[in-house]
Every structure is written in C-alpha cells, then in structure tokens.
Amino acid sequence: MRQLVALVFAAVLAAAVSVSAPARAFEGEKELHEAAKKDKPFTWYTAHYNSETAAAICNGFEAKYPGVKCNYVRTTAQVAYQRQAQDQKAGLAVASVISSTDTSHHGRMKKDGWLQPYTPKNLSELIDAFKPFNDPDHQFVATAAGLVLLTYNTSAVSEKDAPKKWTDLLDPKWKGKVSIGHPGFSGYVGTWVVQMKKLYGWDYFKKLELNKPRIGRSINDTVTMLNAKESLVAAGPSATTLESKAKGNPLAVVYPEDGAILMVSPSSILKNAPAPNTAKLFIEYLLSKDCNEIILKNHQDPVNKHVKPAAGAKPLTQVKTIRPSYEEIDKGIPEVIELFRDTFGI
Amino acid sequence: MRWRHLDRSLFLWLLVAGVLLLLVVNPIARLLWVSLQSPSGGLTLDNYVRAFSRWRYVEALINSLTLGLSVGALCTLFGVPMAWAVSRTDMPGKTLVWIAVLGTFIVPNYLSAVAWILLAGPNAGWLNRVWTSLTGAAAGPFNIYSMSGLVLVVAASSFPYMFVFTRSALDLISSEMEDAATTLGAGVWRTTWRVTLPLTLPAIMGAFIVAFLEAIAIFGAPALIALPGRFQVMTTTLWQFFEFPPKVEVAAAYAMPLLAVTVLLFWLQQRIIARKGYIALTGKGGERRMVRLGRWRWVVLGYCLFVTALSFFLPMVVVLQAAFAKAWGRGFSLDNLTLQNVRFVVIDQPLTRAATLHTFVYGGTAAVIALTLALAIAYIVRRRLVPYARVLSYVAMAPFVIPGIVLAIGFYASYTVKPLVLYGTAWILILAFATRFLPIAYANSDAALRSINPEMEDAVRILGGGRLLALRKVVGPLLKRGLAGAFILVFIPATRELSSAIFLYTAGTQVLAVLLFDKSDEGNFEYLSAIGLILVLGTVALVLAGFRLVGRDFMLRRTAS
Question: Of residues B329 and A140, which shows the higher confidence score?
Fold first, then answer.
C-alpha cells in the first residue's frame, strides 16, 4: 500500500513537473542574451510556417529575451532561397537565420560556404527521431516538422469512403475531385512527388493524370480547394489542414497506410549574419519548450520532445512515416519537376 | 544660331529625361546585358536558344498574346459603352456606376480571382450551383479554370482603364461637333458612331494597349487560375526560370521579345492616329449636352450594372462573406459570423498596420513621381522640344510590358551596387512602383496634352511669356482635372502592386499586397479577405478624401451638374 501511494505520488509529481516546469535554461544562456542585446537588428528568412506562426514565434522570442528585436520575412521555400541568393550576390548581409523546407537548399548553401556551424545547447531537447536529419558538421539543424498526408472534405465524403492509402487517389470515383500542389512551387509537394515515384514509379502520376487532379501551387492550396468543395480529396499538409479544421471548416486528415511523408525542415545561421549572437539564441529558442508550445498552439507539429501534440493529431513519432533520403531529394526534385510538367502540361 | 531661341527650361527638360533614363533604361539595359551573358561572363545567344527552344515555353507566349488581345477586346466591349453612357447620355444611376468602376479598379486581380474561383468553380462555384438548382442540369456551364475564365477575370479587373480613358476623351468633345453632324441630317446613333466615338479613338487605343500589357504582365490571377486550368502563360513560365537553381539570364532573354511587341503596338497606334486630327479642346468654349435615351436608358443602365456585377459586386460579396466568416467553407449563416478575422489582422498582427501605412505612403509618393515625369516627357514629345523626342515616349511606355518580377530583378541588379544602393530602403519600392506605372501616367498625360491646342501656349509666348509661364498659367489649369484622374490611376495600382514588391521588399518594408499574397498560398482565405477588405476600404477612403480636396467638380462633374 505504501508503495502504491508512493507510486501515485511520484506519478502526480512527475505530471505536475512536466506540466509546469519552466523551460530549462541552457548553459551560457545569460551570456548569449547579453551579447545578443548588443547585436545589429536580427532578421529571419523562413518558409517553415505560415505568417501567423512566424509572427507568434518572433513575439515569443522578444518576450523571453527582453532587449532583443526579431524581424521575420515569411515566404515559400523557393523565394526564401532566391532572396538569400540575391543578398549573397550583392554582398548584402540581411538575414541572420534562414529556414527552408527544401533541405537541398541548406545543402547547397553549405557547399557554397554561406553558413556557419553552431551546435545548439538545446540539441538534447530535439525529438530523437529527427536528429539523423541534422548536418554532421552542424551547419543546419532540424527545427520544424510536418506531414504530407491524405485530406478530405467531411461534408461531402464520409470517413468510410475517404481514401486510406496513396493509391486510393487513383480510384476513378475521384475523377475531377482530387487536389494536389505543384513541385515547381512547393518543397513539400516536391518531396511528396519524389516519394511517390520511389514507391510506385512514375506510373502513379500517369494514372493520377487520368483523374484530372486540380493542381495549385503551394501544398496549402489544397486546403482552399477542399474548403470550396472544388475538390473533395487531396494530398495535403497536416498543419494548415488541422488549423483550418479547428476554425470550423469541414476538413479531416487521414494518415495513409502506406506512410505519411515526413517533412523535417532545418534552420541555419548565415556566415555573414549581422546578428550572430541573436542568431544562436534564436536557434536555441526554436528548439526550446517555450517556442514549441507556441508552435503547437498554431497547429504545427512540435520538435521538442517534451511538448505533446494536441488532441486530434498523432505525435509524429507514432505515425507511419516515409521519407526520401537527402540525396534523393537533392537529385530528385529538379527531375520530378520536369516529369511533372511533361505529364500534367504545366 | 538656334541656341539663342531656346529657353532656360530646356535644361529642366534634359534633367527630367535623364531621370527617366536612369529609372527605365538602366534596369532594362541591365536585363538585356544579363540576357546576353554566358556563365563565364562572355557574350552569348545561348540564353535565347534555351528560352525559346521548348514548345512549352513558346506555347506560353502564345497563350499570353491570346490573353492580352482577348482582354483588350473584352475591355473595349465592357468599358466604351459604359464611358459613353456616363459621359454623354441621360442614363440614371451614374454615380453608382462610377463608384462600382472605381471599386473594380481598387480590388487587386488576385483577390477577385480567388473570389471568382468560388463563384465559377466548375464543381462548387455559386453560379454553377444556382444554375443546376434552377435547371436541374447535372453540371453548371461555367468553368473559371480555362482561358475564357482567365480572360473574364482579367478583363473584369482591367476594364476601368478603358472606361476612364474613353470617358475623359468624351468629356472633352463639345456637342458642337455633334451638332454639325445633326445639322447635316445624321441621327443620334449615326452621330455617335461616326463623330463622337471616332474622336475618342486615340484614347480607346491607348487603353487597349494598357489593358493588353497589363494582361500579359500580371502574375497573381494566372497563378490562381491558369495553373489549375492546365495552361501556362508567360509570367508563370518566368516563375520556372527563377526556380532553384535560378536562371535569371534565361528569364531576361524570355522577356525581351515582348518589348518588341510593345514597340510594334505603339507604332501601329501612331500610324492609325497620325492620319487624322484629334484635337478637340481648342480653348474656344463649347457646350456639352446629354443624349436623350428615352426608354433605352434602362437597358443601358442594365448593361452597366451587369458589367459591374461581374467586376465588383459579385466578387465583393464573396470577399465580405469570407472576411466575416469563422470558416468560409461553411457558407452563409448567422452562427458563422465573426469579427475575429478583422480583429486578428488589425490588432493581433502589428504587421498589418505597418504594411497599411507603407502601402499608401509608397503608392502616393510613387504616383507623384510618375506623374511629374510622365507629364514632362509627354510635353517634350508633344511639343518636340528636343531632337528624337519620340524615343522618350517608347521609353516611358516600356516598363509596362516588363513583368513586375522581371522589372524587380532589373531594379535589384541595378540598385544593389554602387553608386546607388537602394535595396533595403523604401525607395527601391517607390521607384519600382513609379517606374512600373509610368506608362499609365504617360498615356494619360499624353492623351490630356494631345487634346490641348498648342496655339493657346503660343499665345502666351507671343505675348512675351516663357514656356514655364505657359505651363503654369494655361496648360496646368487645363490639365488639373485630367492629372488628378491620372494620379488616382497610378496610385491605385501602386497600392495593389504585387509582382515587383514581392522581390524588393525587406523585413521593414512590407506592403499589403505581399501580406495578401502570403495568405493566398497559406490556404487562409478568411485572413486574406480581411486584409483585402482593409486594402479596398483604405484606398476608397483615401480616394474619396482626394476628391474632397480637388473639389466635387473632379471626375463627377457630368453627373453632379
């Protein structure tokens, strides 16, 4: 009996601690904060989130570290990279941290010598499953995660009829009712296309073309298509779909039997960062519990192992996920963009 | 020698021409240079081969030309009858029509494209659903994801150019010319057809060209409609060249032939116009009377309302629904109403407020710069103050055919390097906007000046006044109304300009168009509509305040009297 009481007590205590424990300070946090205050203005180029989330993260960062200013420029992955490339070409130092969803961008920037290495003290907070995606030379570290999965409009499709696996999108009953994004615009879609080709060969897209899918630009365009009931099923993103669902739109997600595509997106500190100390502090922040609670509130998937996903969404580590390797993405995306254009004509 | 006869104002003209060269020629020359560069730095035509060797790319160009010509034609069909009705007839409800046209002009094409997807989407568009429930048909007749759909959306958002250009020309034609025709036995329709409309031909052609160029240069609406409709246009193809790894030099090469098309169009316009005289404003008075339409006035009003329903009322209903909806997918219902979206974008997101301020300050400054330049250039060209003045008019019109994205790259390439580093400041946006809409300012200033008989200035100069005095005392006052109109015509597109802003803004210089575009690919139509609403209402408020300032006479003159 005493043992049982002790056990219950320990469990309650553990629960209380895990709920209320403030994010642990990392070693050297105070010194870094002091140094950051003396930095030039800090700018973050990001493609990881929508602008609401990016704004919330910047606000949270400023609140946690008084005296530090955070500006963000939120764009799609291609534009973020293009912007950085322009700055580099002109010899301008604008951004201190860059976060793309196309991992090959980070590989390319590393090769071109635009990045500086940094090993975050908070690395131990990162969900272990994401650690293999970090750069062995510490020039980029995973700070955001998400899924490409099956989505549908619940007011027109019952849960029973909804597609269960990727090949279900090829069913003729969805003719004219499927929505997808374009790999030439979206890093998420590009990775999805590479993975589908790996699983089912290019035949998958030739068959999909017979169903005349509605093709948008961003992966998030599928959310608009489903909301408008212009399409009924889609290969869509987890976060934006769930965010729209939380607002009351008739949407639902399906974790495909053959695997949801896991997107692990890195952040890097630029070599010419005008605010190098703020940049380091910011990378620490992106991995911290505080920041990931903000991320969670915005229906995105946390990467901090102590932050549990919201109800309705499975933790990424419990979902069957698949993902092409870095090399497959790097080589594959330009290749599938061409194939995609040949097959779909745009 | 001739030098003795030139006034001091010549130096002012040269200065103005110099600024124009810097704003337009430098970025375009930069692009041309880039298009001819090989990776190793040498000269090559390889980029042109790469840009035009694929059928897909050429097809996109053909699609853009089809789009441009169809939009020009449809704009004429929409705009000219409306301009005539408002300017020359006793049609009722003119103020309403005019407000709807102004509203159309203010709504960005990417905002109305999103609205039209909801209205005429083949599966779920409201219009199609109404159709199927009325007729019992299995599917509705409208498909926005098609070339004709894109033509409709773009024409519906561009026809205000046609309306305003034609209307200002009609406003200047005195009834005496029509009376002459009537005296000779022509009826109302014959007079309108043979006298009134031909006198406005330069304005109609100018507007046709502006609509054509706008149609081939926009990115927003095609990205939303053409891609899902499975065809490419020039701007969406250009996007491909900026993909990783970016091929700026191929993009530059791809954009070059369009300059040739512009030059060709203007040459055509000049040839047609040159054969006839179009001077209508002679300073000799003249009176305008309304054509009595009788019962036909209701038919004409019906047509005006039909066009403005397509261009303004229907899309705005959709935008309003979404801006105040908890979830726009749930449609109209009381429990779906919320102020949360507006609250979020106005209060919770400080960025919206900063962007709103930037949008209007940059737009206003750009309009002043563009107008000052355009007027000076138009005057130089009209009065042939310097040799080869005609070249200046091509230069002033050139930026319109350069897609905003490409112009932005030209600006970027030119003004991130010494001696003039503008990137990172608001000036690069302001100057890009001014440059991008210089053609509108120019076409308008030119049309206004064209109708002023030089004899009036000559009178000043004969009496001993200089050219600047003539400008101040005679040309200026005569042009005041036209220029206020031109200001609005530049200010409004500058407030909604997207394609150049998206490349040139930096962390501290966001504008509303950029915020809107972000939302359009974030799947967040509620916030998008709320921001769109702020942009539309803000612009309307400023424009109305402008009218107050200029006097109620301005633009509303025909209906107010």
Answer: A140
Please give the residue of chain B at the shortest CA–CA distance from A96: B507
Specify the number of domains making up chain B. 1
Chain A contact set for B121 (CB, 8 A): 228, 230
Pick from A175-184, B264-273, B495-504, B531-540: least confident? B264-273
Residue B17 has pLDDT above 80, yes or no: no
- A214 vs B328: CB contact, 8 Å cut-off? no
Tokens 């219902």 sit on residue: B333
- Asked if ipTM goes beyond 0.90, one says no
Q: Say if the Cβ atoms of A227 and B525 lie within 8 Å.
A: yes
Domain annotation covers residue B375? yes
The separation between CA A15 and the C-alpha centre of its own chain, rounded to angstroms, equals 28
- Please state, in angstroms and rounded to a whole number, the distance separating the CA atoms of residues B428 and B445: 24
Q: What is the pTM of this model?
A: 0.80
Q: Do B329 and A182 touch (CB under 8 A)?
A: no
* Contact between chains at B506 and A153 (C-beta distance less than 8 A): no
Decide the pairing of beta strands A260-270 and A141-153. Answer: antiparallel
Domain holding B206, by residue range, is 7-34+63-280+291-325+339-555
Structure tokens belonging to residue B341: 């979206």
Q: From A46, which residue of chain B is nearest by alpha-carbon distance? A: B507
Residue B526 forms contact with A (CB below 8 Å) = yes
- Angle in degrees, 0-180, between the axes of helices B109-120 and B126-135, rounded to the nearest 10: 20
Angle among Cα A138, A143, A146 to the nearest 5 degrees reads: 135
Cα–Cα distance measured from residue B105 to residue A83, given in angstroms and rounded to the nearest whole number: 31
Domain assignment of residue B398, yes or no: yes
Q: What number is the average pLDDT over the span B501-513?
A: 82
Helix (H, G, I), strand (E, B) or coil at B387: coil
Chain A contact set for B330 (CB, 8 A): 248-250
Please name the residue of chain A whose CA is at the shortest distance from the CA of residue B143. A230
DSSP string, B196-246: IHHHTHHHHHHHHHHHHHHHHH--HHHHHHTTTTT---HHHHHHHHTSSSP
Closest C-alpha to B164, from B492, B495, B549: B492
Q: Which pLDDT does position B375 carry in this prediction?
A: 85
B517: confidence class by pLDDT, cuts 50, 70, 90? confident
B residues 193..212 contacting A (CB < 8 A): none
Mutation choice for B interface testing from A52, A174, A219 by most B CBs within 10 A:
A52
pLDDT, residue A44, reads: 93
Amino acid at site B302: G
Which CATH number applies to A146-262+320-344: 3.40.190.10, 3.30.70.1350, 3.40.50.261, 3.40.50.300? Answer: 3.40.190.10
The domain ranges of chain A are 23-144+265-310, 146-262+320-344
**Superfamily grouping for domain A23-144+265-310:** Periplasmic binding protein-like II (3.40.190.10)
Which residue of B122, B242, B522 is in closest CB contact with A220? B522
Pairing of strands A321-322, A260-270: parallel
**With an 8 Å Cβ cutoff, is B282 touching chain A?**
no
CB pairs A-B closer than 8 Å: 148
Helix, strand, coil percentages, rounded to 5, for chain B: 75, 0, 25
Distance (Å) from the alpha carbon of B396 to chain A's nearest alpha carbon: 27
Assigned domain for B45 exists? no
B466 assigned to some structural domain: yes
- Contact between chains at A90 and B423 (C-beta distance less than 8 A): yes
* pLDDT the model gives residue A136: 93
Q: CATH number for the domain including B132?
A: 1.10.3720.10
pLDDT band at residue A2, thresholds of 50, 70 and 90? low
Burial B484-508 (b: 16+ CB within 10 A, else e): bbbbbbbbbbbbbbbbbbbbbbbbe
H or E stretch at B405: helix B404-415
